[in-house]
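Take the subject:
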Amino acid sequence: MARHAYLTMKTPEEARTIWFDRLEELNVSPGEENIPLSAALHRVISRPVEALRSSPAFHGAAMDGVAVLAEDTFTASTRTPLRLEIGKKAFWINTGHPLPSGCNAVIMVEHLNVEDGGAAVVTERAAFPWQHVRKLGEDMVATEIILPPGVEIGPSELGALACAGVLRPTVFRKPKVAIIPSGSEIVSLEEAREEDLRAGRALPEFNSLVFSAMIRDAGGLPETRSIVPDDPQAIAAAISEAVAEGADLIMMNAGSSAGSRDYTPDVIAGMGEVLVHGVAVMPGKPTVLGVVRACGREVPAIGTPGYPVSGIVAVEEFVLPLLAHWQKRHVRRREFMQAVPCNPLPSRPGMEERVRVKLGLVDDTCFAVPLPRGAGTVTSLSRADGIIRIARDCEGINAGEKVEVELLRSREQIEGALLIIGSHDNSLDLMDSLLRRSHPGFSLTSAHVGSLGGLLALKKGQCHLTGSHLLDGATGVYNRAAIREHLKGEPAILVHLVDREQGFIVMPGNPLAIRDFRDLCRDGDSAVRFINRQRGSGTRVLLDYELRRLGLSPSRISGYRDEEYTHMNVAAAVLSGRADAGLGVRSAAVALKLDFIPVGIEEYDLVIPLRYAQDRRILALLEVIRSAEFKRRVDAMGGYGTSRTGNILWEYHGN
């Protein structure tokens, strides 16, 4: 089948309008249904609701006391107390009970004196008509509209409906969304086997799990169908079956791109019409929108890209608004705040780009650290605090330029986060977990740019602290020389986090028999493919120091310029076969069951500006890292020493 080209891409707004307008022309909607109140929570009312009865349905007492005819009490005063006989001019009554015939007021029991053993009461206050009385229809009157269409039924609305006698309200039917995963290479989560995943023979299908949660949260009824192979006839059959079983919307996941085995656009066109193929947004460009006809029905269809981030953007841009449109809901709008990117955010003109970022409020400025932009980077979804939208006519955003950020978390969560920018260590995620558990409302947000990048960010006031392990080749001492050079004028404390083993991460059994740095410079059949850390990282500094000490040129190392930003990514590169060896910490090798050849112990420290030393979040973080649990769990990772963890090693005065 021919490849598709995106020649007429639409903006998300244009594409949405085209799709919605066509569905309006076809009068496509899920319709309405009557449901019992017990199932009505969070459903949306589809037509005006009239009260079937008045509330209250009678004149009733609003207080405990006696019911009277107000006009009979007009002479009562402190000078001329009025005596009323019970059963003739006054009638005992409790709150909520109907007034006796001929009464129009209630005198509170606190304002009465009882005489003759309860046969009479005396009042010194005149009552006025309808005093302390809930009048018939005071809350609602039969036939009165109590709830308009489009209202989501919450606990209060349930009470109003019950009071009005509306026991089966009419609501918009929940749209039934059929999610059809496609692809000959994907398997269910239950069927995914580690050996197949590593060999690239299979991909676990989890997009439908994410989509289902989003659809359910938006008031839809998701139904994940069986995985369909890359076969046009099989895809068409799956769509027809879903339509026959009552689907209101067909979601085809994967197969919407421009590859030779991406059949979704052609199948939709063959079963109905394609309205849009290609949306000017990244990620999410290959989205296809249309209508399919089967079993005597016309049903909207969307083909979403297979990459998770792209697919989620397509759901957010088209599926959720359609569900809201059908149910007359408002699409939930996220909060925005201003932020300053720590790094430039280049972008390609002609495409609106969504960049997910981590956020940290440092002093009065919110800083944004971009996460990886790949359409398949699922962790950019779970780790992101916000989204920066780069307009389609823009070539990017400069570092330091204020921008609007769409918040994925609350302001309160962002305000409670400590932002650490610097060197990567596996213990940082553990610190965050323990901090969140012991001090709810606080968290640690980390971004990995290397030790030098962290010190520079700290100097610019872009973070609260940094992690560093920069070795001074002249003295053999860690971090102090770098702090003096890069933090002039910024007093800080140096807190020891861990001692950790650095070494070569290699495949199990160390098949190339790598022992020291000289082995990285082999030639011929025994050459070693190396994976390096980025410039400015402490691990890169250590490598360069050892190469200089041994008189070895970096140009002799195959892969010296092939860089990764974390120890875990170095280990993953070795595990995947992309490299034979990488320099990293033992815990990364242990985590992925790789072999490790130690080359030395290094010092990994936290650098904290003195002005934050008494910040409640910093004090909480220090409490966590000094705890016995943190040290025990770090030790269990392998390759760490925690005897000095939490100690203040040095106080730098800024000069």
About this structure: The first helix runs from residue 12 to 25.
